[in-house]
Design goal:
By secondary structure, this protein is of the alpha/beta class. The protein is built from 15 helices and 14 strands. Helix content is about 45%, strand content about 15%. The chain is globular. Its EC number is 1.1.1.169.
Length: about 350
């Protein structure tokens, strides 16, 4: 890679700082574009990125190029978009105004609409959809930690030919994404645990250790899958487990669940959902782009989706200062009651069960 090439991570929060830090440690020129709060934090503490397998990259403040001015985009030869879904519209406007024409843009965001929104504003030929399968949590000042595993997926394109070897060198191997919609919906199904985790107030590993929380997650996924089937969409497996098998796994008794998961999946004690982190810091969440996306799809089909609708409503309440310490049984009862009420309201549409 030519030394003049520069990756700009647009929306450098937890995921953006982690990925950018790994790439910088491999020797790439990385600039982070984000909030003044994080800029100040990095200026005072430097940056540390770690993972559950022992990765540790530490940077002094002078080694981290963190900026807040969108004019920074003019220097980019590759833009990695990691803004929250609600920020995609503004990101499009900033890239249109400041980035050079033709510079490739990769969406590494949750949800199923962001890549399409970027394409609508920037053109199909330069925008690539991507998927981040792992979880990153902000552990302390300047410290971002990856607590789960998985490989990045990005649409295949000659635009990335010069960069992919560097992703490999950074131990961030990229798998070519071949079916964008199927992959995005498959990831969204996994993200339906984000509201459960955020409402539990627990680390991911502790939350998933409890059968009733897992049943809440299974109900959200099951409702979503039935909507997708009705819409003619086949979600892709993220990892080695198809959605139907994931639902079965979540409903196993605790002892059997831990036996199966212990063989194939690793979640460390620090891992939490990004939605929990947003609530912790008083920020808006992406619930409308996750649970809300299922609700929207159900409405187009003339169906009700009471479980995901209730998950969205509870997170919205939490954004306004409501509860974030629901026990597993309390949360499960909320979902069961939502189904009961929906079944008593025929005008709400056909209930997905």
């Amino acid at each position: 890679m030519h030394v003049s090439n520069r990756i700009v991570v647009h929306g450098a929060g937890s995921v953006g700082c982690y990925i950018g830090g790994c790439l910088a440690a491999a020797g790439l020129s990385v600039t982070y574009l984000g909030r003044p709060r994080i800029q100040s934090e990095v200026a005072a503490n430097g940056m540390l990125v770690t993972d559950q397998d022992g990765r540790r990259h530490a940077f002094q403040p002078c080694e981290v190029d963190y900026r807040t001015e969108p004019e920074t985009l003019s220097e980019a030869t590759l833009i990695l978009v990691t803004v929250k879904s609600e920020g995609t519209k503004a990101a499009v406007q900033e890239i249109q105004r400041y980035a050079r024409v033709g510079v490739p843009v990769v969406s590494l965001q949750n949800g199923v609409r962001n890549a399409a929104e970027l394409r609508a504003g920037l053109g199909d030929e330069r925008v690539l959809a991507g998927m981040v399968p792992f979880n990153v949590v902000h552990l302390g000042p300047g410290h971002w930690h990856c607590g789960t595993s998985g490989k990045l997926e990005i649409e295949g394109s000659a635009l990335l030919a010069d960069y992919l070897p560097w992703f490999g060198k950074a131990d961030l191997p990229v798998v070519e994404m071949t079916d964008v919609a199927a992959t995005q919906w498959g990831k969204l199904l996994l993200n339906l645990n984000n509201p459960i985790n955020a409402l539990s107030g627990l680390p991911l590993r502790d939350e998933l250790a409890q059968a009733s929380y897992r049943q809440c997650f299974a109900l959200c996924v099951e409702e979503a899958v039935q909507c997708l089937i009705a819409a003619g969409i086949t979600p892709r497996s993220i990892g080695s487990m198809p959605p139907a098998e994931m639902i079965e796994l979540l409903r196993l008794p605790d002892a059997e669940y831990h036996r199966v998961v212990g063989k194939h999946h690793k979640i460390d004690a620090a891992a939490r959902s990004s939605m929990w982190e947003d609530l912790e810091h008083g920020r808006p969440t992406e619930v409308d782009y996750l649970s809300g996306e299922v609700v929207a799809l159900a409405e187009t089909l003339g169906r009700a989706s009471p479980i995901n609708a209730r998950a969205r409503a509870l997170v919205r309440e939490a954004e306004r200062g409501g509860r974030r310490d629901w026990t597993a049984k309390e949360l499960l009862k909320q979902f069961e009651d939502a189904v009961t009420i929906a079944c008593q309201e025929p005008k709400a549409g056909k209930v997905v069960r």
